Batch of 3 targets.
Target 1
Amino acid sequence: MLNTVVQTSNTLVQKHLEWIYRITTTKPAAVFVACCLAFLLSCLSIARIHFEADIFKLFPQRGPLALFLDTMKWTGSAGNAYFLLEGDKEQLITEAETFAGKLRGLSVDGTPAFSNVKYRVFDLAEAQSFTTFMGYAVTRPQLFVAPEDAPRYRQFLGPEAVAASLRKATTELAAPGSLVDIIAVDPLYLRELILPRLKKASQALDLDTTSPYFISRDGKVLIIIAEPSRPVTDIAFARKLVAAINQAREGAPVKISVAGAHLSAVTDEAILKENVIVGVLSSLVIVLGLFYVAYRRFLPTLLIPLILVYGVVLALGTGGLVFPTISIISFAFTSLIIGLGTDYSVHLYDRFHFERSLGASSEEALRLATVDTGHALFTAAMTTAFPFLSLVVSEVKILSELGLLVGLGVIFSLYATYFFLPPLLLFMEKRFPLKAYKPLPTFGIGFFWTAGRRHWRTTIALSFGAVLCLLVSATGTSFESELKNLQPRYSEAFLAQEKVEQHLSVSRKQLIVAVEGNDLADVLSRGSRVDAMARELLQRGELASFSSIGQVINGADDQNAVIAELRAGLGHARLDADLNGALSRQGFAAEPFGQYIRGLAGLAEAEPLPVREGIDRLSDSPFRGIVERHLIRSESGYHLLSYLNYNGPEFRQQPFLTALHNDVPGARATSVDLVSGQLLDSVRRSFMLALIVGSLLVLSLLVSHFNSPRGIFYSLFPVTSGAIAMLGLMALTGMRLNFMNVMVLVTIFGMGSDYGLHVAHRVRGCAEEELKGRFVQSGRAVLLSGLTTIAGFGSLAFTDYGALASIGWATNFGVAATALFTLAGLPAFMYYLNTIRKRPPAG
């Protein structure tokens, strides 16, 4: 049965390749016209593709990632631009005033570039609303004073404290630029118990709560937060906005750096395009140089770029029919095709030259190259393409895109080689014939054949020993969960974000809890349970801090605690008479403070107030950002957000999430760690599916190509060893697996099996005296294929884009190791399996 399958598949492939040989040699013009038509149709398809720069859209939009994206959309942080001013504190404040004015004056296409620019806790233009809110808040301590500050509030109302406050007010009123209105609504400075709480909750950053500006506690960095007037998806607007920002900060006396989605979209796109273009051109030059040095033929060398361009365009055009939107990161597949697509020209021309050097005619040499070596190329291309194509079913969009584009690119590059190279070789034979085809350089490959057979025991032992050592090392491979490390490492947005984390971050990490529903009272009630859990974590040292609406506006329990404290101290006091007397002694008229005095005098009979009332008051004040950050109303209902700040593993997230789901059913949580875990699970599932499907397809192709287990072993041993070596070398060099380079394992498995396959295909069924020559010929092609692949992928290794660089280094490790095990290891295994095991026993 197996022999029938092998014979049938080989016959079908042979007939297909015979047809290709016949049509390309007898009707080259028709082939050329058909290829041009396919090329033009692909170009039209490419023109319809939208290229996406948002990295988050490459992953499944559910679970923690969905909430992560929702919070950015709800709070507006996804689209904000963050300007970091660095310098002397006083100079920072002066320059912030100037630069903020420039930002407000910026325009793009005749419209304001920013709809809002903030660098202060509240704008001076909102002084009246600030005064109104503080007048309300200071006389309602049950809503706005923390329970632990209630004793201090009571102390502020003691006779000595009242007198000291009024003397301070007298002094400040005499100073120029005094805030008369705020003193009029709060002459006792009760706001000092409320303002720090409000300032702390107004932003997600660790700001100096004593300063009205968004300035770090160390005074070295001031941040301006601006909201662009158009979304980041408008890339034309983003480019013009970045240009306008760069012009606005020219000549600034302090250093100004920018972070934000608009800048990232523009700079990341520019960096990626530059990296890919430079990488493609440099690797193409290296590949063409290697090909020309090896074969010394000018026209076949020039044909390689055309083959590669054709394969890339057809792959991208066909991919556009499946994915109307493609990530710009997927452009990296062009570098992969340079490395993979050149292999077919190398093997086909190497076989043609080899046969011509042995005296075969042009037609016979070309037929052997197209049909015989072409058969190995067909199987090799399919074993490379199918593992990639199996990634199409991945739920991770970037893996799905790259799988489809690379798989199609490999197949189209193979057929471009089939269709373009044979007619060119016949044309060269007629117009530019060589006087003689000299044997090609062996590059020392004959040494591997001789040494492997002479020292086969040592070679086999060393091969297995190396694999075992690298396998042990591979157990130390870890996974990179920080998404930011996959971005351009030296872009301004990346460096600015690091400065934010260094100077302004409350903690290294943050977990966000969302309590949602249509009934605000129920949402707030369930949110209070989250607050209670957060307080316990804070007491145990698992959290650095947390932020919620409940830390600004007291719930029912906290209000009762504050009221109880005030009643205990004020129950028998005649506060109104005492305050009137104190005002009179300090020279103040009592009438303007009547409402203030009545509010304080009534605290002894105070009752809890609706939380909704406090929220409405905050929303109408300069502190509306607190509400906007913690409580959002959308078409689906209310979303109450709590921010839990932590530094590392001391926060045991899984037990907390379990308790959260039990105590607050329906609550959602997200963090960078949870998002990374979700993406890791998605990538793991996609990888395992692709590995299983790809392995089965590769094994099926190898079984259909070879009629003995030895041929399959010769194909799989080098690639298995190469994959283990890749993981082992990554661990030894401190590299980590990530969401991108994990696909390299699929790449190595599909592509690396080609090396052993080509060698096994050439040496099977030949006479003993021909073995070395055939091994050298196929080994030379394998060596050049490996070098061209490393050149293609190597260009990625030196990019600034962490995701692409990791793909480049991982692939280079795997390809180099696979080629080494093929050339240095297979001769010993072939000698043992084909010769030693077949010897009759002695005696």
Target 2
Amino acid sequence: MTSILKKQFFTTVTICLILSACGGGASDAGTGSSSTGSTSTPTSTPTVTGSTPTVTGSTPVGTGSTPTGTGSTPTNGSVAPSTGWANVKMGGGGYVPGVIYHPTVANLRYARTDVAGVYRWDNGNSMWTALTDGFGRPDGSNEGAESMALDPTNANKVYMTTSMSVSYGNGRFYYSSNQGNSWNYVGLPFPVGSNNQGRAIGERLMVDPNLPSTLFYASRTAGLWKSTNYGMNWSQLASLSPYVMTANDITSSNGGSPVGVEFVVFDTTVPTTGFTPTGNPTQTIYVGIAPDYKGLAGLSSYLYKSTDGGATWTAVATPSAVTSAIGSNQVHIPHLARAADGMFYVPFTTGSGPGSSAPSFLYKFDGKNWTQLISSGSGYYGGIGGLSVYGTGSTTKIAFGVSDTWGDAGWVQIVMRSADGGQTWAEIGRSGDSNGSHNYHDASGTTGAASPSYWGWIDDLKIDPFNPNHVSYVTGGGVWSTSEAFSTSTPHWTVDVNGIEEMVNLDMMAPPPGASYILASGHGDTGIYVHTSLTAAPTRSPNVGASPLWSGGNGTGIDMAWNNPAYIAAVGTFTTSKGAYSTDSGVTWTNFPTLPPSASASGDESKVAVTADGSNVIWAVAGKVPYYTTNNGASWTATNLPTPAVAYHIAADRKNPLKVYAYEHGGNWWYPANSGKFYYSKDGGHTFTASSQTWNPNGNGMTDLAVNPFTEGDVWLADANNLWHSVDSGATWTKLTAMATVGAEFTNVHGAIKVALGVPAAGSAYSAAIYLVGTINGKDGVYRSDDQGITWIRIDDDNHRYGGVARIVADTSVYGRVFLAGRGMNYNY
């Protein structure tokens, strides 16, 4: 899933139900202990050694006590007992660039996402198991996996490379000996970009099946790399090319997303049963070359072949029909599929994806000769994405996905199939159709039944090596699968996302007790949702239905009237801003008839606040003066707030409908700029007065503002360094000192970044439970205080870190229930 915003910092939601507390919890799958070690940084030679411990998918790195704070002098406390974490059910969402099947173990497959970790299929429970939920804030940029590889001789070994963008510097190589239940890593001497363009291309990382200690990697910026000790050390194969892209090369390549070397394929057959490795390196290897690296490295072709294990390479000439139709600067080979008889099936497409375009071609290649099988305009329209084959000779089964389709398909993505080696073709599936099913897809098993219209980019597709009727493909909304791919002309496809929740969260709010819903949320690309259940996908939204009010876009802000929670206001963007309101708890929606000038001129993220009685809606657009309306958007009036660097944190007092609060954090989205300022209004958000207090400047994503929903004028502020409290509507402030001033995501970010208030514990002297995302006694985590911040207890654990918590909202009806939005993942509780 992509977004017009910075997706690599986005979030999805987890919820912790803490009847007494939250933390710990059972392992997702398997057992075992985590390894430790050390890491070293390469100097003049492109080699990395050592290993570094990281948090695990289901096995904690450490156990024991966790410190808490008491007043200004922190003291030690204990980790609260767990009652478990769970996903808020959205039914998928988010781009899954790759699905990887184990070649010799049935029902063992993995899914890699661009920003939300990796998953392993649990066949017994028919769901995906998250393997990287234990990655915390320091590891958050490694929640995206650019490539994964499996050892065909050892089902327990799995490898992946991580880092969301080449702009972050060198990536990591993670390795696991227990199917991803725990991980260690070494640093890589080259960048990795799981959320860059072309992220479904590959696989880039491959294990030599005949000598599994040898791994190859097709890098984006630095050519081809090889390890001979299970990935612990890496050396560049200068035999292909020694060229390493410069900073200027990277910036100018594919919009800052260089593609480089695209994939590695070993020319050897791995049968599903009876495979015995030779113990010697595979000699014949193919690699794909993207146009950017081809030009910079002075290479002559898009496909190279080695017959001596990579010591030397020979260019494989591209069919002239391909280069003349596509053009030399746009030819990409997204995947190379090898059949059991040694025949290669090679797609040529325009652009790197996501969503490659026409012209496109599919050829077969026997090592010397090319034979064209099909091309765009002769049975399908658009670019070829995913490709997979099964069988041999004239009965070879082939399936491929088509992205960016047009013509009679009406810009939908389709799946094509051949059961005779490419002689004849038929369409067997569609994604993103206006009906959501188009006679193929359904969630219930009935042909033509309505189902989610997950759109975008069939850029990877796999035929199960143990069952050719079982085919899975990826989209911007997750994974679809069928068990009838070659047994019927109209297979049933189902949404295969149980356990994968990657719908990126941008905002959320919890209503008061007695509301007809539990939670409301805003998401990147998919808009606004109102949740009446935590275990079933939401249906209340301006983005769903036969004629949705909003078609796509980001839902960036949502709020309700505390005294009448049926009234909800929501704002979002899709190139330009949009806003709507509901008077029936999100069942139906009405667009604001007009937009404030600041919104109509902006497509950036914005926030919204609704006064307690619903009489005023205040819309804070990024980089613009906030406006308010008293007539559901028929007209808008500017507030007197100054123009912020980005959007204000804005909140309405839940007890007094005249009070509204705004916090300008003094930075852009992620970095500091000027001192933070707080403003309060006593006339429903029309005019504001500045507090005399100032705060350290920090980015929007590292700061927060929350009100105590049970007490008037009780406001809390997290400025990324500390937690602050006001009991007089923000006129004066007290700084809490339990937060430790240590680095978190960036060197300028410290002890308190997110705060929320919910229903208090029984008998509590303070009117709310306080939840904090921050650092206490040197430990980054999620904490709760039941005594107004005097003492704290950690409520998350080392298995549930979600790449760092980016948003937090507390339930106002159930004590201990808190909703977390992890970076790149959906909600959890």
Target 3
Amino acid sequence: MAEATKRYAVVTGANKGIGLETVRQLASNGFTVVLTARDEKRGLEAVEKLKESGLSGQVVFHQLDVANPTTVASLAEYIKTQFGKLDILVNNAGITGSQVDGDALKAVADTGAVERGEVDWSKLTTETYELAEECLQINYYGAKRTAETLIPLLQLSDSPRIVNVSASLGKLKNIPSDWAKGVFTDADNLTEEGVGEVLTELLKAFKEGSLESKGWPSSLSAYIVSKAALNAYTRILAEKYPDIRINSVCPGFVKTDLNSNAGVLPVEEGGARVVRTALLPNDGPSGSFFVQYEVSDRFPITLYYNPKEGSFCYSHFSQKDDPINESAMAEAIKRYAVVTGANKGIGLETVRQLASKGFTVVLTARDEKRGLEAVEKLKESGLSGQVVFHQLDVANPASLAPLADFIKTQFGKLDILVNNAGIGGSTADPDAFRAVVESGAFGRGEVDWSKLNTETYELAEECLQINYYGAKRTAEALIPLLQSSDSPRIVNVSSFMGKLNNIPSGWAKGVFTDAENLTEERLDEVLTELLKDFKEGSLESKGFPSSLSAYIVSKAALNAYTRILAKKYPTFRINSVCPGFVKTDINYNIGVLPVEEGSAKVVKLALVPNDGPSGSFFVQYESLSHLHCLSLFLLIIFVLCIWCFCFSRYAVVTGANKGIGLETVRQLASNGFTVVLTARDEKRGLEAAEKLEESGLSGQVVFHQLDVANPATVASLAEFIKTQFGKLDILVNNAGIGGAIGDADAYIALVKSLEMGRREVDLSKLMTETYELTEECLQINYYGAKRTAEALIPLLQLSDSPRIVNVSSGAGKLNNIPSDWTKGVFTDAENLTEERVDELLTEFLKDFKEGSLESKGWPSSMPAYIVSKAALNAYTRILAKKYLNFRINSVCPGFVKTDINCNAGVLPVEEGGARIVKLALLPNDGPSGSFFVQYEVSDF
């Protein structure tokens, strides 16, 4: 049986880059993968590397030169003998057909010239006839002969796949020749012979030196045409073998040797694109060209549908270079969501929020009239065209098939499924319930729940059918459509009542917590036992909850099913969430949260990044986990009483063992945050945390060692926060140094004499600055803040109000830097990038080392401090533009008495800390990307 389910894959050109990563991801998905490479030594080293990472037995090596038919035949014989079949072929082997000046390419990429279309590729590449011929032999004919040789083995698979790794440059708009375009786009008459004729003509023109006059690309001609030919061959093969899913894919501009590592995507992302295409369902597309279409800062990538080519494509070029049909482009990037039980409450609000973010949302409801009314209401609010209705009763399998068929026909895929439909499994007298609340009987413990709450076997059975089985059958019906998305998400709306401490039964808990043996069949067994005990009247004696038993167990089962699904579909992000105690019909509208807040939690999970969590249960009220409540209504009162203490929020402050950092920790902790106090010196950090605990902040402050100049400690901090808290709400980048050694007494004397106020002081006579101190200053003040932010942003993205505050200084204002070039870089908002800031800092260090600071327009005193703070202000603007849902600002806390100014400042730390905390607590519609001085927005 185990042998029958084994699956086999081959990846060509796989000893490095995208090929190697594709092997790793396929092996991680359970495939036995044949890693092939032209160079036997490098191929064996790559296999060894994968085995050491834990993939022993999943990867084997076989030498393959796709340009050599003998080695292709040898590979086929090996697979036939060893495995008897093949399931996936990834044709990844490829070369550029030119010699590239790597350094020059990187330099050009860093200037932004690629974005502006100002690159003369002929100056970066050297192309010869021999290189062009080799390029065609590998990129096109190599893929062709490998496919033809292995197809007989693929035909023995029940789900054969061929993925041809192509490129955006293979788009026909990059080939001027109308004749070549005509051959490639004539679908009715497209043949391998026709493609071969195009390639022969290209080589003939290359040899004659007539590329441009014959309409061929003037640069990278062989590479461009080989990839266009590969896309055409993909269509030919797909038509010839309708039982095989055959597609080509552009993995994106990935950092690989092919582009001298000037790409912008990691190989993990590129490999994921290839693997997603390799794992398409049996009814998935075939003969298509898939592209990675996310926008990159350095290379804006546009996705559009080219009617001539019959596929969605993307370009690194601007619209003025290649006009496109805007409506077709809008169609191409559309994304689709389904929300069940959505005619009111959290479901309706989830639909509204997703539609407001550009999704086309299918609002479903059991009652058609109420569902249509809900859609009308949303349309009237300005969401016309974004929301459509489809009737759905999740308890009725017959209504699921029409929904799936509707989505398949109308949209062709699905990106998000929100399983929201649910009921309480009991009935209650709302008026009596409210009267009890108003009488204060809850507080006195004088409530007879049996008089307020009615549970029957029929209601319990219906509860399980909707809350658990309804979500399960909806997911199963729509997963094939979700598999066609590049970022599939399932969010199961659960409840804190589904936590296992609400189920007394040790057996039921054991089933739900046994991760290794958790299966859908075991969940069915628990639910069957619950209904049996309900019918027999033996719930309490059998360890099931005595009140709201069906609701509690259904939500526990839903959380367990979430974990099962996440394990089964590792490329999905599947999570369950308790949206909080929201005012809805299910609790007679006595909840404490508005639906907007509850739905925001759901939508946040629906939009987690591709590397976000999966198989997790998110609870808004984290500190409720210790409550052993067997009644929803009793729990409601607990929530009402301790609401203010239950909403945990987390902050990190760097460089916080003293001064402004320590005071910022104190004020945030006093505002109810759990604060991670970080410091380079562990002893001083622990002492500072102890000091705060003794002042009455016990339990609010924890310490973690952090040297922002050391990437390893930054990674350790991120892991600590992820493990302990699961998210982060505020990051305060406070760590900083002066970058110089000064005469403290002389400095203090000057401050007291007010000479500094009249700018009559030459600080260079008081300060000693060295190259080492300067370099350290940049590493801590700028790069330290940058690496800390980058490491913690994934955790901040899980917050509903993420904040980053970069502690800067008035010294970082641009009027303190004489250089017009430097000012120009920092003030050019449109072209301001991290790469340009790096370029500036590199130039600064170079001039420092050469002793040419003043002649090059840098500050003569405290140059490292001034420039690092100016760079931090610039980075603040870059980040704010990149993360629009964050509030990211920099702040000058004022001339505060701290060690950095020898305690000669005029403001107490309380005032400086307050300015930082004010920015950390800005409302969600507050400013972002600004520089604050004395509570006011200042220019830079």
